[in-house]
Amino acid sequence: MTKNPKAKRLVINILILLFLIGGTFAAVQYAKGYRPNIKDRSFQGSGLLNVTSYPKSARVIINDRLTTVTDDKLYLIPDSYTIKIEKDGFHPWTKTVPLKSELVSNADARLFPIITATSPLTFYQASNATINPDGTKIAYTLTNSPIEADNGLYIHSFSSNFFSSQFVQIADNSTKDFSKATLVWSPDSSQIMAVFTDEIKNVEKINSVLVLSAKGNNNIKNLSDSTLRLHLIISEWQDKYAKINQPTLALYPSFLSEILTNRATNVYFSPDKDKVFYTVSENVNLPDNQIGQALPNTNSTKETRNLQKDQTYLFDLKEGTNYHLPFASNSAELKKIVITTREATPTASIDTLKQLKAQTESYTTSNLSWYSNSNQIIVNNSDGVSIVDYDGLNLINITYVQPKYRFAVSSPDGSHLILLTNINQKTDTFNLISFDLK
Question: Rounded to two decimals, what is the model's pTM?
Answer without folding.
Answer: 0.89
